[in-house]
Design a protein that fits this description.
about 270 residues, alpha/beta, 7 strands
Length: about 270
């Protein structure tokens, strides 16, 4: 029905080493073996430089890729942008934008490696949180674009095999498939972002109204279909004047954020 992967695809998996991403890699690898290895799988892991987190995540990523013979690429955030997440946290306390860097780096590296699609471990809870955040912040274009712009050469299409799987089900599945595997603790900076508060709201709604996460997802997809009839997503996409990556403005979020980080560094 969804045709997330097709014969001949080269698929890069954004492998963080957490339960969601290793489940995606496991399922895609299992699917590939079952269907005669029709697709080429590679994995990309970003070493973010979060002490007490990345050591465990990198170990998990290395173990699963080596066990399955999957090509694995590790990218250092420090080498890419000049800072680790721990360093960014001291320079901009209370602000967490590491997702901006991850999206940019994953897209660029996947493209450089020749991947046609980029698989991420976003589950149902993640998708619902994002839908509500886009609505709250008025980010209509992100809501319309959904999984990305398919017809742009510099954008690798994202696929999300777990987007209809609840977080707790993914965790349970991972515990059966990888018994005894130690997962890294939650990012210490996540509590500072609005997503954490939105997650509490979603969890509370689901506890009182089971199944509401699916309803929110269906509503957001219905709204997206209506908006797509009136919005040209490609018309809003251009190339960043600094790095050349896809953006809806003259300068992409990553370059703007790096500029602010540089200003903070100079002021210190």
């Amino acid at each position: 029905m969804y045709r997330l992967v097709e014969e001949g695809d080269k698929v890069a998996v954004a492998l963080s080493g957490g339960k969601d991403s290793i489940t995606v890699l496991h399922l895609l690898d299992k699917f590939n073996v079952t269907h005669g290895n029709d697709i080429e799988l590679i994995a990309i892991t970003i070493d973010q430089g979060i002490r007490g987190v990345d050591e465990i995540s990198l170990r998990n990523s290395k173990e699963i890729t080596e066990a399955r013979g999957i090509e694995h690429h590790v990218v250092s955030l420090k080498e890419e942008i000049g800072y680790t997440v721990d360093e960014l946290a001291t320079m901009r306390p209370g602000v967490c934008n590491c997702g901006v860097f991850r999206r940019n780096i994953l897209n660029r590296r996947a493209r450089e490696l020749g991947a046609k699609k980029l698989a991420t471990g976003h589950n149902l809870d993640d998708e619902v949180e994002s839908a509500l955040m886009n609505f709250i912040t008025g980010n209509i274009m992100r809501m319309v674009r959904g999984d990305g712009v398919v017809n742009m050469s510099k954008f690798v299409r994202r696929i999300k095999p777990l987007r209809r799987s609840p977080e707790e089900e993914v965790a349970l599945y991972a515990s059966f498939v990888f018994p005894g595997l130690e997962f890294a603790p939650e990012c210490p900076y996540r509590g500072q972002v609005i997503r954490r508060n939105v997650k509490r709201i979603v969890d509370d709604l689901e506890n009182h109204h089971p199944g509401i996460r699916y309803q929110v997802l269906e509503s957001s997809e219905g709204l997206r279909e209506v908006l797509l009839k009136h919005v040209d997503t490609l018309a809003e996409i251009k190339e960043c004047s600094i790095c050349g990556e896809p953006t809806s403005a003259d300068t992409c979020n990553m370059c703007e954020l790096l500029a602010r980080v540089g200003q903070n560094a100079e002021a210190r």
